[in-house]
Structures are given as C-alpha cells and as structure tokens.
Specification:
Blueprint: E1 7-10, H1 11-16, E2 23-31, E3 38-50, E4 56-64, E5 71-72, H2 75-81, E6 99-100, E7 104-105, H3 108-114, E8 115-120, E9 126-130, E10 135-137, E11 153-156, H4 164-172, E12 176-177, E13 183-185, H5 200-215, H6 218-233, E14 255-259, E15 267-271, H7 298-305, E16 310-316, E17 323-325, E18 342-344, H8 347-362, E19 368-373, H9 376-384, E20 394-396, E21 399-402, E22 407-409, H10 425-432, H11 443-458, H12 469-485, E23 490-491, E24 504-511, E25 516-524, E26 527-536, H13 545-567, E27 571-576, H14 579-586, H15 593-605, E28 611-613, H16 623-626, H17 630-635, H18 637-641, H19 660-671, H20 679-683, H21 689-695, H22 703-715
Parallel strand pairs: 1-4, 13-17, 24-27, 27-28
Antiparallel strand pairs: 1-7, 2-3, 2-11, 3-4, 5-6, 8-9, 9-10, 12-13, 14-15, 16-18, 16-19, 20-21, 21-22, 22-23, 24-25, 25-26
Helix pairs in contact: 7-13, 10-11, 11-12, 13-15, 14-19
C-alpha cells in the first residue's frame, strides 16, 4: 500500500491558528476500496510543531475541509489499566470522550523526523517514542460492544498522472453556476509558485501616471472614470472596504486605457498582470498555470464566414466581466483608482439564430449586442430592439467587414511609412509582423517581405545594424506595396450556398528557390473562390528545387485537409506543375529518407489519384513563390478566381507520365540526401555559367522544359 506522503490540517484548525495560505497544490485523492480518484486544488500552509523540549519543527501542511469522520475512542479506559504504559506522556492524552476528531494528520513527509528509537511492547497496544510524546498503536482488548473503524487516505500529487485538461475545465477554472445566473471562476494557480508580492507601491506610481496623462484630456479622464463606476454599479468590480485585513493573498495590478475604433466602447481598460515590483520578483502571470486557450481556429471561422450568402456578427457585452471571480481570488486582482461571427444560407435561419442566441446567453447573464448583417430583415430587427451595431465597418476576428458591400477589409497600420525611422533587420521584422492576414490572401505581396527578410539573414546583418542603401530602397518599395495592398476589399461570399456532394476543392502548390506554398479554391455552381493560401521561405541551407516543390506539395496536402474539414466538401483535387514530384507520389520505388517521409505523409492525407498536372503558366501558386506586382495583383484573375478550365473537366491538363529524362533526374534525386545541386545540374553537365544564367536552370521544374528551352536556343 502506498504511504501517505503529505500532511494535512483541517480548515477549522487552520482558522483557529490563523494560518496564512502559502500557495496551492494539485492532488488526486481516493478513499479506501474506491477505484476512482478525484482531483482537488487545495491550499498549502506552514505550521510549527512544538516538541517536548521546546524545539519547533516547521511543517508544510495541506488545508482540507475534513480529514476523516469522527473516530470511536476505544482508549479512554483500557490504556489507564495497562501497567507497562503507566507514567508515559502520550502524544494524544487519554480522554473520556466517546469520539474524537482528527484535526491534523502527519504523513510520511514528517513522521520519521519526529519518531524516536524507543519502543515499549506489552499485552496490548505498542508505544513508540516521539518528540511530541509516545504514539500508541495496536489492538485493545475489550469485553464490551466492539466498534470497528477504518481510516485511509491515498493522495498523489504527481502532475503527469493528472488529467490536467479535464481538471482545468472542471476544477481549477471552477466554472460553477452562481445564484444570480452568472458563472464563477477560480484562478488556476501554479503548484509551489513563489511568494506573490503586493506590488502596492509600483501600482500606486503607475496609477498616478495614468491619471496625469488622462488629465490632459478631461473628456477622456471623465470617460475612464465612468467606465470604472459603471463596472462597480453592475457588480463587475467591488470596493475593498478594509484593505489592511484580508485572509487571502493580496496583490495589486496596474491598468491603463487603450483607444478603440468603436462607437460602443471608444476606450477599454487593460490590466497589467505581468507587472513586477522588483527584479527577481514574480508577477501574477508567473503564478498562473499556463494552458492552451480553448478557442476555435481563426482560419476555420473566417473561411466558414465566407461560405454562405448571409453573414451575421454580434458582440457579447462585457463578456469576460460577466464571469465572477471566486471570493478567495479577488484580493489577488486589486487595483487603485480616484465578436463570434457566423454565416447562414437563408434570412430565416439568421433570424432564428438571432433570437435563440440572445435568449440562451441572457440566461447566463450575457447581453448579445452590436449585431451586424447583410440581411436587411435581421438588421431592421436589431435596430428596433436597439442591439444593432452603429459602425459602418465592423471588426471580424482581426479583420474588418463592410456589411453594406459585404466585403472584408484589412486593418491598416503605418507599415514602412515613417520615413525618419532607421531601417534595420529588427525594424523589418517588426513591420512585417504587423500584417494580419490569417487566410493568406495577400501572400503574393507579403511573400516579398519574407524573401527580403531571408536575404538579411543570409548576409549575417546584426539586429540593429543600419541596412545598406540599396537594401533600404528595396525595403521601402516592398513596405509601400504591402501598405497599399491593405486597401484591397475582398468579397466575403461568392456563392449562395455550398453543396458538399457536388462542390469541389482544388489545391495548387508550387516552389522556387525563394519560397514554396499552396492555395485552395472552392468550385461551387460554376463559381471559383479563393479560400486560403499559405507559403514559407526555405531554410538558408540550400535545398534542391525538386525537394522544395515536394515541400510545397506537402503544404498543399495539409492545407487541403484543413479546408476540407472546415467546409465539409469531400471532393478534393491537388494540382502541381512538377513532374518529378508527380513521379515521387505515384511511384512504388523506395526513395531516400527526405523524399520518403514527405511522400508518405502526402499519401496519408490524399489519394494519389487525386493529384493532377498543371502547367506553370496557369498555376496560381506560382505567385506564392516569387511575388507579383501590386498593380497586376489587384485585378489578376488567375489568383482571385481562376484558372477558368477548372469548370470544364474535359479541358483539364493531362499528364502523359514520366519521360526517360524525368526518370533519370528523379533517380539521381532519390540516391542522395546531401545534394546541393538542382535536378538539372544532377542530370546535365553544363559548366558554362553564362549559359546557366541565360536559361535560368534553377527555375525549371522538369527536364522537358529544359529540352524545349534548349531547342529554342538552337533554332535561334
């Protein structure tokens, strides 16, 4: 049987001794004979155990409501009658009470530090010497009525054995119904986290600074105060009546205003839970258990948002403030002071969603407001009920939407527009990361920034080193194009509805020495819509072009699987312009590890029969590998809704199978794991650099293209 490795104290005794909590611990606790265990998040504390000699032994104990049910006192008479125990000072004095309660239980973590060497045996229980008196254990003979009792605790705090995901959802997050219809949550404290300082002084200084800044704009200061007062009136926050006396941990957090482009909430209050009062101290965030947020993937939501005719967005009024914080955790969040989009096929369905969702969320204390839709019926209803969004452009998961035009727009920033800013590698990365394009629809423009960043790495430039003038000029051109591209408006929906049995997805992939990627199109009722695109730059270490094309095909397979799961469209085709990659996918020959690993994953995701050949000139994924001029990009039909022949299967390109030259090139690639040459250089001995430059061999996807280029050069 596993020994008890923890010591416990009851809440009642802890309160009597005025013990302060020192943190939390996660335990699995099971009772004797019970196959199941329960996970609990319990407070810890330190107590001083005073010995007979006056020594004080510090013990870490776990505070628990009840250790055990009352135990029958069989020692109240018999012990006094045993001669070999007379005169011993017992750790638990004999009393005449019929029952007694266990208020503190010392486990194996401290038991052997208090037990001595002397043992006294006799015709009855055994006495074991300890620093707090003799401990009595063993049978007691009695002729009267027998009472039997058993007490057993099995506690285990090995984190790896705990289903933490289930625990955080059910226990630590403590989501429980409150009496007024709201929910209550506990802070998921880390196990054995360091002592959390109060932060009072630094928070006081920061709050004073915030007030001084706000005072420069009296209207903003007034609005900030009104927000705090409104939160107090609605019960979201509460005044601390007695700041000096609290039985819980106390911690202050600073706050500051952030302006918002919104009519309902022009500013919002942001709390700094990462604030530290001194170097080496911890913040509130440092003491909270990190875990993955339970949120839907943004690309999935945005893609589904574009699939149906009618779109609806709404906002839960003060969503997070509607969830109450547990009473014991509130003192840890003290401070000082003077939308899920959806789309529907019919207006009737949208109206039904409006009514049902508002009713459902209202039951939990949430007010679903700021409704916006291209459905005139829903918009009129929300206006009548004063729940409509008054903004002409609304936010949708980091993007913007114009309900009247039913278009999606990008959030615009000052990317690369400040001419006095020093251009460094750090600045390029910072500006590039500002572009929020979750669906990758602007990738043919933004890929230029990725390629440029790769060049900076190849040149071994330091983070804050000023770029050479030529590079500064190049970056200004790239950043200017990206900035202008953010003005592009994208049709949210190009089809009335999706027919999963008839519609199809088409994934195109490609690669160059600079980048590789893939894009996905939806073919529905003779309409072609670009849904999503992703691209990457290759490692700095050179990789052959065929292998990069294989990596592009793998990105395409993964992306196709992702979009298939989002849309529910089962029919999917993969298009690639590399004949070598085609051969790898359909070939049964064992390839080297690099090729085999990627080909195996592609085959697991897709059937080889779903792969089709697409000539380079009509492969939209080509733009993902090199980029395209902004002027052409805005109106480019191939990128936004082509190639047209997709709508006529009889006109689809047909691959005749690998030629001898392709087989030769493929074989050479498969035999080497370390080749740094392109497939052309593996199969053709061309030593003249000028000829290579003229023919641009690194851009060729097959020997067939080279053969055609060579034939033209001979003719010339």
């Amino acid at each position: 049987m596993k020994e008890l490795k923890n010591s416990f104290i009851t809440e009642e005794l802890a309160q009597k001794l005025d013990i302060k909590s020192t943190g939390f611990i996660t335990l699995k606790i099971s009772a004797f004979g019970d196959k199941n265990s329960e996970v609990h998040n319990l407070e810890k504390a330190t107590v001083q155990l005073e010995t007979q000699t006056g020594e004080k032994i510090p013990m870490e104990v776990i505070i628990i409501p009840t250790i055990a049910a009352p135990i029958f006192n069989r020692a109240r008479v018999n012990i006094r009658e045993l001669s070999y125990l007379k005169g011993l000072k017992l750790a638990h004095p004999v009393s005449s009470d019929e029952q007694f309660h266990i208020s503190m239980l010392i486990g194996a973590d401290y038991y052997w530090s208090i037990v001595g060497d002397r043992i006294i045996r006799g015709n009855g229980p055994t006495a074991v010497e300890s620093k707090v008196g003799y401990l009595i254990s063993g049978p007691i003979h009695s002729s009267g009525k027998q009472h039997s009792g058993m007490f057993h605790i099995l506690a285990d705090h090995k984190v790896e054995e705990v289903d933490l995901e289930k625990f955080w959802k059910i226990e630590s997050m403590g989501i429980d119904d409150h009496k007024d219809g709201h929910y209550v949550a506990k802070i998921p404290w880390k196990e054995n986290y360091p002592c959390l300082p109060t932060n009072y002084e630094i928070v006081k200084r920061r709050t004073e600074n915030v007030i001084q800044r706000l005072a420069k704009d009296p209207k903003m200061l007034k609005l900030y105060s009104e927000i705090i007062q409104d939160q107090a009136n609605k019960g979201f926050i509460e005044k601390v009546e007695d700041p000096e006396n609290s039985g819980n941990r106390v911690h202050y957090i600073p706050h500051h205003p952030v302006k918002k482009d919104s009519t309902t909430t022009p500013i919002r209050i942001v709390y700094g839970c990462s604030c530290k009062d001194k170097t080496g101290h911890v913040s509130l965030n440092d003491c909270i258990e990190p875990y993955s947020p339970m949120m839907n993937d943004i690309t999935s939501i945005l893609t589904r948002f574009r699939l149906n005719k009618f779109a609806v967005t709404a906002d839960i009024e003060k969503a997070f403030l509607q969830i109450e914080l547990h009473q014991k955790d509130r003192d840890s969040t003290r401070f000082l002071w003077l939308s899920d989009p959806a789309s529907f096929q019919s207006e009737e369905t949208a109206l039904k969603f409006y009514k049902e969702s508002r009713t459902l969320l209202a039951a939990g204390g949430f007010n679903l407001r700021s409704w916006s839709s291209n459905s005139e019926m829903l918009q009129n209803l929300s206006k009548a009920e004063k729940t409509a969004d008054e903004d002409s452009v609304v936010k949708v998961l980091g993007m913007k939407r114009n309900p009247q035009e039913d278009t999606l727009q990008y959030a615009k920033n000052d990317t690369g527009q400040k001419k006095d800013r020093v251009t460094t590698k750090r600045e390029v990365l910072r500006e590039t990361s500002k572009v929020f394009d979750p669906l990758g629809l602007l990738s043919p423009i933004s890929v230029k920034a990725k390629i440029f960043m790769q060049e900076l790495w190849k040149d071994n430039l330091k983070w804050d080193e000023k770029l050479p003038k030529s590079m500064q000029t190049t970056w200004r051109e790239i950043s200017s194009e990206i900035y202008d591209a953010l003005d592009i408006r994208i049709n949210r929906n190009n089809s009335s509805s999706i027919d999963c049995s008839c519609d199809s997805l088409h994934v195109f992939s490609d690669a160059s020495q600079q980048a590789y990627g893939a894009c996905v199109y939806l073919l529905s009722k003779n309409k072609i819509t670009l849904l999503m695109a992703k691209n990457r730059v290759p490692p700095i270490k050179q990789i052959t072009l065929p292998r990069l094309e294989l990596m592009g095909a793998l990105i395409g397979a993964r992306l196709g699987k992702h979009v298939k799961e989002i849309t529910g469209v089962n029919k999917i085709y993969f298009w690639c312009d590399s004949e070598i990659v085609f051969h790898w996918i359909i070939s049964q020959k064992t390839a080297n590890r690099f090729v085999a690993n990627r080909v195996n994953e592609i085959r697991e995701i897709s059937e080889s029969s779903t792969w089709q050949y697409c000539p380079t000139f009509c492969n939209p994924a080509d733009y993902l590998t090199r980029g395209i001029a902004l002027k052409k990009f805005k109106e480019d039909a191939l990128w936004w809704n082509r190639p047209e022949w997709l709508m006529e299967p009889q006109k689809w390109p047909v691959w005749d199978g690998p030629t001898k030259a392709i087989l030769c090139s493929t074989s050479t690639e498969e035999e080497s794991d370390t080749s740094h040459q392109t497939k052309i250089q593996d199969t053709v001995d061309i030593k003249t650099e000028s000829i290579q430059s003229i023919l641009k061999l690194e851009d060729k996807s097959s020997l067939m293209k080279l053969a055609r280029a060579e034939e033209k050069s001979k003719t010339f």
